[in-house]
Amino acid sequence: MRVLKVPDLFDLSTIMVSDFSPGGAFGSDTNEPDFGFAFNDSNFSDRVLRIEIMPDSPETKSDGDCCSSIADWARNRKRRREDFKKEIDVVQRQEQVLNCNVPDTVDGLTYENRDDDAVAMIEGSPSDVGLNCNQIGNDTAYDNYSSLNKDHLTVLRVNIIHISSPILAAKSPFFYKLFSNGMTESEQRYVTLPVHASAEEAALLDLLNFMYSNTLSITTPTALLDVLMVADKFEVASCMRYCSRLLRNLPMTCESALLYLDLPSTVLMADAVQPLADAANQFLAAKYKDVTKFQDEVLNLPLAGIEAVFSSDDLQVASEDAVYDFLLKWARTHYPKLEERRRVFATRLGRLIRFPHMTCRKLKKVLTCNDFDAEIAPKVVLEALFFKAETPHKQRALASEEANAPYRHFLERAYKYRPVKVVEFEKPRQQCVVYLDLKREECARLFPGGKVYSQAFHLGGQGFFFSAHCHMDQQSSFHCFGLFLGMQEKGPVTFAVDYEFAARSKPTEDYISKYKGNYTFTGGKAVGYRNLFGIPWTTFMADDSNYFINGVLHLRAELTVRQ
Length: 563
Hints:
By secondary structure, the protein is of the alpha+beta class.
């Protein structure tokens, strides 16, 4: 009779190398078999997992074992993280006193001193004690572990779970290394894992269940976050991805978004959690899109929230000068010490400011601002000035090159006040030439009665601005495009200028003069033309319009101070 050779289900060598690739068992959570029937069943298990439940700190206990809200979860998580660090420090000090050369593996305990990393101990079966002097008995190992930590990590209780090493190893590099390190301990039957009582106990059981069944029964955000943290601890990427997806599907709030962005860096940087971080960033950027409406709220955001809001291309602000002023105010509020403020500008905040789109007057202030490092300020200002000196084609090329970068410098935001380019002359007369470009879609949004303002520019110590309008012509017979020049200062100030308005026009694409004259400005007054081009709005916006060149309307004004 022919005998078929059946592979050993518990032989770790049957787990193929391909399973550990990004598309294999460690990286995939789709089309995987459901072994839920085998969870905690001795008939389908080759190991026994001892989960040692450790007490929480008194501060954590006082809030209760259950977190009823995201805020409670965040507070308890922070306390547990601090407590864990204290425990590790105490244990390390004890080890240094006992033996300064104690290795990382003590009495069979695979122990890595990384904050919140998994700690595991492999033990032999109690029945094996004495049979092999190289094997570590359950009681012996447990006593050694307890004596090392009895004053600090008292075991409240022990949960016994029957596990299958191939199933766990296929899902987790942590368990794979634990069961296949080639040492005698990797062949032992008993494995001990210490966890905190408050949240890790339930989360670990949920994680183990997931590794068998590929699903979770929990749905609350706090429970999912607990499982996510434990999954990161034991390197179960498929569960991290699963939790991340469930959390993204829950209603996002400002509180939850900030919590997701405040997760430990090891969790936040994982590929499985990146979509959750992206969703949190997008939520905050959309919520605070118009910063002027939420100035007080945004001023109270933590650094992660500030980065989410001010890295957005769709941020609605008056100008990049306003971004600079706001971030300076935020930094001085949250980092009162100058050294800390300089550090955060150099490493985090500086990359949020698009210096090339700031005005030259504000760039001068950057050079003398004490909040910036003396070496950084000249570099960012010089880069901004070189960008301003480039041709429009080169500027667009530079902006497109960083289209996929997380932080952009050259791409223009949706400023409420449109940027202008100014060329100034001091002699023989004070004069400036101002260029204003408007995209076709920006002009289209003006219909039927809108207006858009330019950023301020200066001549002879006075501030001026453009305003473009869509309104009815003087006879109220049709809509048309109008352009006006206003002076910022209010009050009894008078200022006389000669002016000329021009626009680029097809087919030559040269600037063609439209109107010229002179005007004496007083505070709050403006001069301009209701119908700059002398045509109806429909003709101005038509596909064959003479005034849109590659989808952009190019306007120019020359201003000269009158003697």
